[in-house]
Specification:
- The longest helix has about 35 residues, at about 240-275.
- The protein folds into two domains: about 1-175, no CATH class; about 190-404, no CATH class.
- It has eleven helices and 16 strands.
- The chain has a seven-stranded antiparallel sheet with strand order 2-6-7-1-5-4-3. It has a five-stranded mixed sheet with strand order 10-9-8-11-14. Strands 12-13 form a two-stranded antiparallel ribbon.
- It has helices spanning about 15-40, 50-55, 60-65, 75-95, 215, 220-230, 240-275, 285-290, 310-325, 325-340, 385-404; strands at about 1-10, 115, 125, 135-140, 145-150, 155-165, 170-175, 190-195, 200, 205-210, 280, 295, 305, 340-345, 370-375, 380.
- The protein has about 400 residues and is of the alpha+beta class.
Length: about 400
């Protein structure tokens, strides 16, 4: 099994400058390879370049520009070219599937924030020795950087990545581990229903309130973004000191919200995994749920549009993204795998409209957001609890069908 460890780096001033130069040069390599692919396809011969052809040019590129490209790890530059190749592979996959293609775009320096080393010991080395309390990571072209290691690394390190978040730098280790010992069984099963008012409601009737981290920080974010909007848009290297402070302020606030959301998701998922052997949840398509409504052209007036509820839908979309359902479900699946628990995703259709007592399904069974009242048998309960109960039943049916 593969697990990731993320540690804060403590670079010196000179190392911070070198790390920034490393990102800049890898970004330049990425954009140059993208431009080469575009030019080759626009040529009358419509030549298609792939990773193999572009990787073969790396030696010439490093020899031609030793100060910018030759000082960095060869394998990390290959990873950057693989990153572009994966972007094109995803583009062609979306084209074949009839989805919105999203052609790969050029990356600005401020948007290119990760460099990957595909093997520990090839251009990088994570150094952790028992007799030396200081943990370091050695990067080619940068040197030995101190690492704030807050927990031990268990397993064999496969890849090493350096990531920039605002003004902080992190090292991310991809580690191969043996399957850990599963948690002792509890004999408990549960279904969960994710929502906006309550972040989570389980089939036992327990509610976990939605912390709404983004809404709590909305006032400070609005103030910081208004201050940032007063500066003209320009490249990162052309920003004044006050402009950079305004950019950092917005980044710090967004980073705080993201960490709060992750912390809440980790703690909630850990409680579920410790208490239950099976967890059933709705198979939510968050991207489809948060999609903006299509415009409605006015048939009587050319160029005019009818109201389509876009403003109300925008508020709902903000609440969906603030809840972070997708992040929570990813964390839940990862923790369940480590603990030997079972997580089952079921079809979410009509889970809050089907009566758990008699099975009657109708839209009228849910007269309000919270209330459930069956029109056939009169069963009354909280709508989210009803949804979680139906999710659990569907999960048990699916598990029994798989085992059979």
């Amino acid at each position: 099994m593969i697990r990731a460890y993320k540690f804060l780096l403590r670079p010196t001033v000179a190392q911070t400058i070198a790390l920034g130069e490393m990102l800049r040069d890898h970004c330049s390599l990425y954009n140059g390879a993208l431009q080469e692919r575009r030019d080759a396809y626009r040529h009358p011969s419509k030549t298609t370049l792939r990773y193999r052809e572009q990787s073969a040019q790396l030696r010439e590129i490093r020899a031609f520009d030793p100060e910018r490209q030759g000082r960095w790890s060869f394998s990390s530059q290959q990873s950057t070219l693989r990153r572009l190749d994966k972007a094109f592979a995803a583009f062609f996959r979306r084209v074949k599937a009839g989805e919105t293609p999203g052609y790969p775009r050029f990356r600005g320096v401020s948007w290119f924030d990760t460099v990957e080393f595909p093997k520990d010991g090839d251009g990088c080395r994570f150094i952790s020795t028992p007799h030396d309390p200081v943990i370091r990571v050695r990067l080619q072209g940068v040197g030995h950087i101190k690492v704030n290691q807050h927990r031990p690394v268990v397993g064999k390190i496969k890849t090493v990545s350096v990531k920039r978040e605002g003004r902080k730098w992190f090292v991310v280790l991809s580690v191969e581990q043996e399957q850990p010992e599963p948690l002792p069984p509890t004999g408990s099963v549960v279904g969960i229903d994710l929502g906006i008012t309550h972040f989570l409601t389980d089939s036992n009737g327990h509610h976990i309130l939605n912390p709404r981290h983004a809404r709590t920080a909305a006032a400070r974010l609005d103030t910081a973004q208004r201050a940032l909007s007063r500066f003209p848009r320009c490249k990162a290297n052309d920003r004044t000191r006050n402009h950079q402070r305004a950019v950092d302020k917005v980044g710090v606030l967004h980073g705080r919200v993201r960490r709060q959301r992750l912390d809440h998701a980790h703690k909630t998922a850990l409680d579920l995994v410790r208490q239950h052997d099976l967890i059933a949840h709705e198979d939510l398509k968050v991207r489809n749920m948060s999609r903006a409504p299509a415009p409605k052209p006015d048939p009587e007036k050319a160029g005019a549009f009818l109201p389509n509820g876009a403003a109300a839908k925008a508020g709902l979309n903000r609440s969906i993204h603030d809840a972070g359902w997708g992040v929570f479900l990813s964390i839940l699946h990862a923790k369940a795998e480590s603990a030997g628990r079972e997580v089952i995703a079921v079809d979410p259709r009509n889970t809050s409209r089907r009566c758990p007592a008699c099975g009657h399904t109708a839209k009228e069974n849910r007269p309000t957001q919270e209330k459930f009242h069956c029109g056939a048998c009169g069963h009354t309960a909280h709508a989210d609890t009803v949804g979680a109960t139906n999710v659990l039943r569907a999960g048990l049916v699916r598990r029994n069908a798989n085992t059979a």
